[in-house]
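TL;DR need structure tokens for one chain.
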Amino acid sequence: IISSVPNSDLGEKFVQKQIISDSVNYFHQWFVGFSDGEAMFHISMNLKNNKLTYPSFTFQICLHKDDSELLYCIQNRLNLGRVSVYDQIAKYNVSSKEELLQLIKIF
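>> reply
TL;DR here they are.
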């Protein structure tokens, strides 16, 4: 990130401030690209008494459990969703309406 910030006569303080303010944008750009290859938006219909009732929506990233640290990083940076690890699979899920609405704004 530091090398991508152009040199400026405004001083080191400005450059550091620019990096900090742009870091969210850089992360969001990376996250959108990463999600393009590794994530999905899932829509399913719930059943009640063998009748379709209402849809549920989920954003999900599934990786090998060895990469679970990356999912925790995403969760912490976005302050959304939850991570769970089962056997060999680590999953990052966002399923609440409020969190999905925040997440969609990134895309």
